[in-house]
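cron nightly-structures :: item 1 of 1
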Amino acid sequence: MTTARWNGAVIAQSDDTVVVEGNHYFPADSVDASLFEDSDTHTHCPWKGDASYKTIVVDGERNPNAAWYYADPKAAAAEIKGRFAFWKGVEVG
């Protein structure tokens, strides 16, 4: 079981993550969506496509753009479609 934690809260947990470039991508249904806020941030990866971001909010503390996902990745990254990955202090293990 792989777990993502930030600020003392479990934000995602699954035994079905996909690892790409060292990042665990969690299925959308394994993520606690109540801890996420929408973000206007987007980035582009030449081989994965366009990523969208979410801000994590736990106990009133915000971690801007700490979660990202590819809603419609390029074919080479199809396995991570709709899955979430984390950074900015989120502990995954």
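cron nightly-structures :: done
The chain is about 0% helix and 55% strand.
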